Each structure stands twice: as C-alpha cells, then as structure tokens.
Amino acid sequence: MVFAGWISVALYVSFILYVVVGAARRTKDMASYAVGNFQFSPAVVGLSLAAAMTSAATFIINPGFVAYYGLSGVISMAICLPLGSFISLIMLSKGFRKIGNTVKAYTLAQWVGARFDSKGMALLFGVLSLLLITFIVLICVGLTQVLSITLQTDPLYTLVAIVIFTFGYMMFGGANSMVYTNFIQALLKVVVAFLLLGSGYAYFEGGWSEFIARLQAIDPNLTSAFNAQSPLFRDFFEVVVCQLIVGVAVVCQPHIITRSLMLKKDSDVNRYLTFAIVVLALFFFVVFTGLYARLAFPDLQVNGKPLRLDATMSTFIATQFSPMTGLLMMLGLLSAGLATLEGLIQSLSITITSDLIKPLLGGKLPLAEIYMNRLVIVFLGIVAIFISYQQITHPDLSVGIFAQNGVYAYFAAMFVPILFGTFLKNVPAIVPTVSAIIGLIVHFGVYYGRLTPYMASGTRNPGIAAALAIVAAVVVGGILQLILGSKSSQSTND
Description:
This protein is mostly helical. The protein has one domain (2-393): Up-down Bundle (Sodium/glucose cotransporter). The protein has 21 helices and two strands. It has helices at 2-24, 30-35, 42-53, 56-69, 71-103, 108-115, 119-128, 133-151, 155-170, 175-198, 208-218, 236-250, 254-257, 269-284, 289-296, 312-320, 323-360, 369-393, 399-423, 430-448, 462-493; strands spanning 301-302, 305-306. Strands 1-2 form a two-stranded antiparallel sheet.
C-alpha cells in the first residue's frame, strides 16, 4: 500500500508538471498569469470553479465535524451553506464579470478600486486579502494529514514537500495551467465523491430507519437536526440562518468570484454556472460520509487511541477501503486540496504584488511584475509552512476553526462592496469602505470578545460572528447609501 502510494503520487506529480510546463510557455506577463490567454470552454471553467470552491475542507476536514456531531452538520454544510452560495453565484456572476471586463480588473482589490474610483479602497482590500492565508493553512494541513497517513511519512517533512511542490509550480503556470489541472482534478473528485458516498451502502441494508437507528444507538444527538452538545450546530439560527448568510457571502473570495473573468463571452455564463452548480452540489454532499466514519468508529477511537477530528476521513479511507481503492481516494483528496490551493496561491500572490507592493513603491517595482510575483509566492510558502505546522501540533479542535475565522472575516468585509458595486449606481466610496470596516469590527469583536451566548465558552463558531458581521455591514451600508447616495445622485444631475 505504501509503495503503491509513492508510485501513484509520483505519477500524479509528473502529470501536473507536464501541464504546467506547457502552460508556462504561454505565461509571459501578469495578465496571462491572472486570467490566461487560452480559449477556455464554459464547461472547463465551470468544473474548474467546482474544483476550486470545494477544497480539502469539504473532502477531508468537514466530514470530521459530521462524524463528531451528526446530521446537524450535514444540514449545515451540505444543504444550507451550498444553497446560499448557489443563489449568490447566480445573482453576482454576470454583473461582476461585466464590470470586471470593463475596467480590466484581475483581482478583487482592483475590481473594487476601479468600480468606486478609489486607490485607497484597492489598497485596503489588498491588505485584507492577507486573511486568506488562513485558508491556505487549512488546505496544507488537510493534505499533510492525507499523505502522511498514506505514505507513512513524518508530517513536518510531508508538509514541506507539499508546499515546495505546489507553490513551486504555481510560480510559472498561472491561470493557463490552473484551469486545466482543476478540470482534471474535478473529474477525479467526481469519481471519489461517488465512491465515498457509495461506501456506506451496507449501512442501509435495513433502509433509512435502520441507518438512523444505528446512529441513535451510538448517540441520539447524531440524528437530530440540531445538536445542542456541539459547538457549531446547536439550533436553527446556527445551523440554517447563519449558514445561509455565510453561503451567500462565501463566493466573495478571489479564487471564486473572479473565475467568471476567464470566460471569453457573456453568453457562456449560464452554461458555466450550470456545470459548476451541478458538480458543486455533489461535492458539498460528500460531508455525509462523516456519518459512515462515525459508524465505523463509534467511540471515536482507533486502536485505543482518540481519533482526531481532522484525521477522521484520512483514517476512515486508510482502514475501510482496499489498497487500490484507497489509493484512488487518496489522489481524489489530494486533488480536492490542490485545486483550491492553486487558486488561492494565484489570486493572493497577484493581489500582494499588484495591489500592495506596487502601490506602496510608487508604482515602480525593482523587478518585472511577473518575477516579483514569484518572490511573493516563495514568501507565502514559507509563512504557510510555519503556521500550518503550528496548527498540526496545536489545533483549537480543528484547523477548520482557524481558517473559518480568517476567511469569514475577509468576505464579511468584501460582501457589501461587491453587492453594491454590482447592483447599485452612484455609490460613494465611503459607503463600501465603512461597511467593510464595520464587517471586520463586528466579526472580530464578536469572536474574540465572546459576545452573544453562542460564544460565551468553549470552541467559538466563526459562522456566528461572520453572519452578524455581514448583516451589520449590509444595514450600515444601506443606511449610508440612502443618505449619501441620494446626495451623490443629485450632485451628478446638477
């Protein structure tokens, strides 16, 4: 199994490098690195989005939450959050793409700065994008868990190898390689999703009622819509309301919303969204397999040792599948992480280079922009190694909590600028700026101040803080727009 794992990883790595080398020949500047210069079909871009939007969290980390806390986690992460994100994708994609192409924006910070004619806003959102490093850490930890268990390697050395390989090839290929590697990764993830979801067929021999009865015998809380004993899925507000709000805002991340800019014409958007949403629905539902893992490890122990939440799916696959199927699963989980990691490295490095370093140096870089971007990727890789290892050795329940806190804060700040910028006219720059700041203050204030009864003790749910922050940002932004937007419109008419 271990030897075959090494062979499989070597073949997978060789394929990735083959694609990257071919794409790198076409990547000559930041424009081609950001959105590519190939003619991508809507199906390819749609599958690329599906691969990038469902990361190691969806396939590796989140099923662990379901194994620990039951059906409430499935309702939260496989139904409510996806529903909100699908609605948001449908509503925002066309308008965002139209404005992005008009102003020639390659990053979210550029889009916001150009839309509101404010260099200060572009710089602000460039700084805020650094919060996405937490998401990079989550994926690095998830991939390390999978590969170190499969290949029987030390987690630290495995982590370093993953970062060197992934960050290394992303220095050269950019969008030209990413879309095609994501496409192949999405196809592999489809196969793995079906295998995972079908792996528990034996538990359904007596029907759904028998399946539920097995879970109830372990813990009745596992079969309830809300699990009062969990830190994340306690009631209707936490499971449904917060996740719908977070789902709507979650698309406001650079590796997600900017994907539509890779389409060559507006007529491709509907087909792109159809492919993406159908595949995403399947991927999000993979968390259901966490229930199979709980039935396999009813006391959350393996060989007498406690089963860590983040290692639940990796252990389940390693112990419950034949060697060959397990290897295919491992490659699928590897694809799940790399697909999103590629998008994050690409979008975050461009933002740091073009929207932070370049403006701060007065618009003049000591190197060509594409070469400066590669140095930024090296810096991100070093940071990722240090923080990821800390999360492997000392997590707060799960690295998912750490990542959610950073990522949710980012899109809580970004939601109003994208929403108002897409649908409203005559929006003064002060409106989205203040809304973004309010979103940040409320999110971190609720989380670190332990405000509301939900945050009073124990592990804190970043979804609560994010949902309250998004609502506060929209309300404040709406009030400011009513006051200042009318004045701006009147001034324009005069």
